[in-house]
Amino acid sequence: MIRKSFAQMVAAIAASAMLATGLAAPAHADNDRLMKFLAGAVVLGIIANEIDKKDGGRVRPGQPARVVPSRCAIPLRTGQGLQTYYSKQCTDQVRGLKLPKACLQTINTTRGASRLYNGTCLAERGFRDEGGWY
């Protein structure tokens, strides 16, 4: 969140500076200045896009939710109550489904250690169970 607000602030300052220099130029600005202005705007757009990509994969309004198969769900009783986890072994078999590594945990169960995705973490990043939200 802090990184995104910083990026927005930097983009706003840069846009303001570019606008101010553009307004200070004579009304008959030549093509060279126009091309420099457009190139700067494109560079700022690329930088802002890269920062958005590094936003931790969190879902944004208007971004479609991604679906995790219910057959991979494993309900586990934890100190926080009943939690839904998803088997890495099961989800790895779903074509095109790429789950965030930040949600992958090693959980010790009565059957030994298992690599599972935390359902709450997935929901925060826009994933949902095919049977509905968590």
Structure in words:
This protein is of the alpha+beta class. The protein folds into two domains: 52 residues; 64 residues, no CATH class. Strands 2-3-5-4 form a four-stranded antiparallel sheet. Strands 1-6 form a two-stranded parallel ribbon. The longest helix is centred in the N-terminal third of the chain and has 23 residues. The chain is elongated. The two termini are 23 Å apart.
Q: What is this structure's SSE topology?
A:
Blueprint: H1 2-24, H2 31-53, E1 66-68, E2 73-78, E3 81-87, H3 88-91, E4 104-109, E5 112-118, H4 119-124, E6 127-129
Parallel strand pairs: 1-6
Antiparallel strand pairs: 2-3, 3-5, 4-5
Helix pairs in contact: 1-2
- What proportion strand? 15-25%
Sequence stretches where pLDDT stays below 50 over 5 or more residues: none
Number of structural domains: 2
Series of secondary-structure elements, N-terminal to C-terminal? HHEEEHEEHE
Structural class: alpha+beta
Q: How many helices in DSSP terms?
A: 4
Please give the number of β-strands.
6
Report the oligomer.
single chain
Q: How does the overall form come out from the CA principal axes?
A: elongated
The span between the termini is 23 Å
Helix fraction, binned, reads: 40-55%
List the strand order in the largest sheet: 2-3-5-4
Main beta-sheet strand count, sense and barrel state = 4 strands, antiparallel
**Cα-based radius of gyration, to the nearest Å:** 23 Å
Q: Average pLDDT, to the nearest integer? A: 75
